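How it folds
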Amino acid sequence: MSNRTPRRALGALTVLCALALTVTACGSGSSDGAGDSGPKDVTAALEKGGKVTVWAWEPTLKKVAEDFEKKYPKVDVELVNAGTGDKQYTALQNAIAAGSGTPDVAQVEYYALGQFTTAKTVEDLSPYGAVTYAKSFTPGPWNAVQGEDGIHALPMDSGPMAFFYNKKVFDKHGIKVPTTWDEYVEAARALHKADPKVFITNDTGDAGATTSLIWQAGGRPYHSRGTSIDVDFGDEGTQKYTATWQKLLDDKLVAPISSWSDAWYKGLADGTIATLSIGAWMPANFTSGVASASGDWRVAPLPQWTKGDKTSAENGGSSLAVPKAAKNKELAYAFTEFATTGTGASTRVAAGAFPATRADLESKAFLEAEFPYFGGQKANQVFAESARNVRTDWSYLPYQVYANSIFNDTVGKAYVSPTKLSDGLDAWQEATVKYGNDQGFTVNE
């Protein structure tokens, strides 16, 4: 998700079979627009024309659709907002099950893509020419869309994590920007001692934030082999995260405020919430939702679990996938390629999306851009470094949408009761294992 839709818990959706996304590499090279590198049937489809229905909530696609229609005047692109996140996924699942009304292209967040690939309801885009883009995208997004059985989507944007901090508050209380999570805990204590109204961050339990920080810490709770899945939150990386975050909870150093709430925006504006560790898509939300704090905030690399490391993770991001039930698959691929690569990708970046393409991420204009909100800082340089340092061996559950929907019923208790975070993760593990087995997977703990 870019420009940004809150990553809230999502409703349960049915999945049919298991197929893990694994790390592979296929092909190399790049292209600059639909039809330039694809097979002849894509070019022929563009010449013939037709209608492409795109389900997406991402606003930057409007200009892309207009540009696509201008370049290919025989093609009509119909953009439909079928809902954000879980609402669209439910509608998409229903259309697929009914055998009618399925769009030609659908926006799917990376963590949710598995439920469609496991059900084999999205096209493998390799035969259409997608293999040429293996080196065109940054590691995190590319890892998320391709697996051992093909390329399931093309990355639309990404969310490499960074550390946003209120410099005005830090300077006022003499706090140094933490470079490790141990230093982060000490900074949290110092801030709250200096002013009991100030918290290092907010947290009431968020599945996406938790899994992203576990990802950065080296935790790999999910492993899939065909229909067999392992779920284990007892690994060393997860324990690093749990131990650190438990200190913050025990000492009441995080504000009990939900992200994306009015209170959250107020806390970011008045400095009572002093930092956020979140995806690189966040700047647009600062400028639109926290305008009064312009100039107060800065961006730094994410604190590290081991001093001297430069490890990051992804938090958010979406792809464009072509359902197998699409009526115009060649045109659908052509639009997907146009929107995610070359000029289409650059158009979206110019409108505020965070790039998944190496070309945009490495461009001088992007790297040298100054952010008035962050005091003129060239924040994209921090984000670009984070993107390069994302570990690519992470995978989600093929039913992560369901798992996230029960996060607050399990792990969330650690934020509102004496329940320990590790016990909450154990409960989450138990519940997701049971659900997976009930759905026909073989899930082991």
In short: The CA atoms of residues 188 and 200 lie 5 Å apart. The longest strand covers residues 50-55. The two ends are 31 Å apart (CA to CA).
